[in-house]
Amino acid sequence: MLFRYIFILIIFLPIKAFALIEVDITRGNLSPLPIAVSPLSIDKKSKESFNKILKNNDLGSEISIVVENNLKQSGLFNPLNKDAFLQEPDIAHLKPRFEDWALIKAQALITGKVTFVDEKLRVEFRLWDVLAAKEMMAIAFTTVPTNWRRVGHIITDKVYERLTGEKGYFDTRIIYVSEEGKKTNRIKKLAIMDQDGFNTKYLTLGNELVLTPRFNPTNQMVTYLSYFRNLPRVYLLDIETGIQEVVGDFPGMTFAPRFSPDGKKIIMSFAMDGNSDIYTMDLENRVVERITNHPSIDTSPSYSPNGKYICFNSDRSGYQQIYVMKSNGSNVKRISFGKGIYGTPVWSPRGDLIAFTKMHKGKFYIGVMRTDGSGERLLTENYYQEAPSWSPNGRVLIFYRETKTDEMGEGFSAKLWSIDLTGYNERLVDTETDASDPSWSSLLSN
Amino acid sequence: MNLVKIFKNVLLVTLACLVLSACATQKKSTSQLQGDVYTGTDTVEYLASGVPDRVFFATNESILTTKSRDTLRKQAAWMRKNSDLTFVIEGHADERGTREYNLALGERRANAAKDYLMTYGVAGNRLSVISYGKERPVDSGSNPLSWSKNRRSVTVKAN
Q: How close is the nearest chain B Cα to the Cα of A115, in Å?
């Protein structure tokens, strides 16, 4: 008996491991995986119930479109045209006719079912390997109907993780600064949206200048710079309650705030008598600590994910360069030595890389380097771009780009862009207004 | 025939004018820069007759030029005569830098102006500073002359 079990394991494991499809993400993926996202099936009664609540004709189909767009935006997948699908969604979800899906060159298939149960939205979905004719994953979950777009994001995260071996970044939000009006007097508001540009909400009214919002990696708090009453100070904002408070009691400008990886401290610059140094404030006991003490400008601090190190921007060598130090301020080391000047270092959530802005001969670059400064790679060049922020899985950077104005000083715009760590898949991130200073949240679920 | 001749002449004259005016603007723009510090008066306002409200800086610099020091001495003299007034000194940077560094740079520029005013007898408690970084340019152009007008510190009456 025991012998038979061992036998079966030996036979089955290798087949399973070798047969399944995988997506290679180590290099730029130039041949995205063809994937079929079948509309999720939905019965007539559920359809009517959801329609009443959400004014939504076919929730199953709508959710599958969210998934499809996510997969496409990632650059790693090529969602196939639904017109070519031969099988009905409900039947495909029970047992796909793999030959039909292989015929349209799908290598993977997502099917699912949406039902209205006790005022709630129940979703189940399956991921199929078309060539191996196997189910790879089956998950069901229940949520409130208004969360339906998040359902699409969670499905994408699961599929992405199963096929790439890395966590996804789709059930996330972006906080940014919405910009309107003339370049000489921009109206700026804090805004938040889903990672795919939907559900935009404005968190401030535009009465005062706001800049550089950043998410707490552990919850839905945000820290940012506000010019409320013409006193530029770092603020803390709870997105859920809308409650705001000034961080600390500093007799001058505080700016460039970020959270520590455990979310318990804010690290920022404080300018006194014209000199900016780096400080932290513990959010629990309100203790303020001075981290750097140097007559140069020290700003744009960012912690390593283990909290042991800080990278920051300083012009102590004469020009802006990137430095790394221990989190108590000791062992300061310059790590940027390439041509040009460097700003806005941000430590990757994986810990191995630092993203930055580089300025050289009138051009602006977004790049990455290892934490000792080696292996510098420039991902994108433009007239003006800066302020990269990492996706929570450390695969994608979002940043903002500004355009040059014409001879009349017209034509200015600021937009969000994203690019894969490999330098491929550069994309405009759609926003309702002009936008800058993006910050990517952690995964909202799991 | 005559008409064509007249037309030709008019065209030539127009062309000549265009060329000349192009030269003129060219000359004007270069003469408004010393190094890359703005020396013109396009954007300058006056706190009082003969007292300019702003001074300009070189790229990435907060050092006061000879002309800036001259302007600030005029401001200081006028401030001493109007001792009931208080002031905000706004520090600004051009758009060709990262936002956070520019905030720090604006702060540095405003403080350079403040310190100089204090050495010429203006009490520190009458002068507050605020940095706007690159957030409030006066000139929206994307060229060296526009940028030079935006690298500035501006003294504003606060009461």
A: 49
| CB-based contacts of A334, cutoff 8 Å, min separation 6 | A317, A321, A322, A323, A373
Query: Are A255 and B100 a contacting pair at CB < 8 A?
Result: yes
Secondary structure of residue A437 in the 3-state scheme: strand
Residue A31 pLDDT grade (very low, low, confident, very high; cuts 50, 70, 90): confident
Cα distances (Å, whole numbers) of residue A296 to A246, A252, A318, A445, B156: 26, 17, 9, 42, 27
Of A211, A315, A410, the CB nearest to B99: A211
B98 in reach of chain A (CB within 8 A)? yes
Average pLDDT over residues A288-315: 98
Picking from A255, A383, A404, the nearest residue to B103 by CB comes out as A255
> What's the ipTM?
0.92
CA distance A8 to A40: 35
A256 vs A446, residue with greater confidence: A256
CB contact at 8 A, A45 and A115:
no
User: pTM of the full predicted structure?
Assistant: 0.90
Domain residue limits, chain A: 37-164, 173-440
Q: Is CATH 3.40.50.10070 what the domain over A37-164 is classified as, yes or no?
A: yes
Of the candidates B107, B115, B139, which has its C-beta nearest A271's C-beta? B107
Q: Do A300 and B95 touch (CB under 8 A)?
A: no
**HSE-up of residue B22 (Cα within 13 Å, Cβ side):** 6
What pLDDT does A397 receive? 98
| Residue keyed to tokens 């030269």 | B23
CB contact under 8 A, A276 and B104: yes
User: Which CATH number describes the domain made up of B32-157?
Assistant: 3.30.1330.60
Q: Is B159 on the interface with A (CB under 8 A)?
A: no
Neighbouring C-beta atoms of residue B129, cutoff 10 Å = 25
> Given strand B87-92, what is the order of strands in its sheet?
B54-56, B152-157, B87-92, B127-133
Closest Cα in chain A to B134 = A184
Chain A hits for B99, Cβ within 8 Å? 211-212, 386-387, 436-437
Query: Is residue A299 within 8 Å of residue A312, measured between CB atoms?
Result: yes
Q: CATH number of the domain at A173-440, please?
A: 2.120.10.30
Residue B12 and residue B20: Cα distance in Å, rounded?
Answer: 12
Select from B133, B106, B131, B127 the least CA-distant residue to B115: B127
Q: Which residues is B55 bridged to in the sheet?
A: B153
Q: How confident is the model over B16-50, as pLDDT tens digits? A: 544 444 444 444 445 799 999 999 999 999 999 99
Closest CA to A227 of A212, A249, A242: A212
In terms of phi and psi (left: phi > 0; alpha: psi -120 to 50; beta: otherwise), the region of A256 is left
- Tell which residue, A287, A292, A286, has the closest CA to residue A271: A292
Cα–Cα distance, A96 to A87 (Å, whole number): 8
Up-side HSE of residue A306: CA atoms within 13 Å toward CB? 6
Tell me the sheet residues that pair with B142.
none
What rounded mean pLDDT belongs to chain A? 93
User: Is B135–A319 a contact, with Cβ atoms under 8 angstroms apart?
Assistant: no
